[in-house]
Prior knowledge:
Blueprint: E1 11-20, E2 33-41, H1 52-56, E3 57-58, E4 61-62, H2 65-76, E5 80-90, H3 92-104, H4 114-122, E6 126-128
Parallel strand pairs: 5-6
Antiparallel strand pairs: 1-2, 1-5, 3-4
Amino acid sequence: xxxxxxREAAARYVFRVRFRLDTPGGVAAEPDRFETTVYRRADPPxxxxxxxxxxxxxxxxxxxxxxxxxIVESELGVPVESVAFSELQTSEAHLDELKTAIAADxxxxxxxxxxxxxxxxxxxxxxxx
Length: 129
């Protein structure tokens, strides 16, 4: 079973998130805005969710940042002001598996090569660790 904690996964998506605290009347917080890094486990190729990058990224940016902001807001339980895709952090083995899965069905990506797919969706935002 793969690790539930994305910090322990073979690959993970990294996002920069800016959120705020909404305090009830009579209470204030200062600062009331914060920036943090949020990680999402990259599902292994072939498993449900492995096409996350295709469905959510374009040239290294989020396709629909307002929709993704709502998802992150729901997950974190705080109002999210902005969210930006930062990178895919991956092991060499996971990247090789990803390339193999992409190559097996380039039609899923409307592309002619694995390199084109990675560039189209992730831009230069892949870091092998």
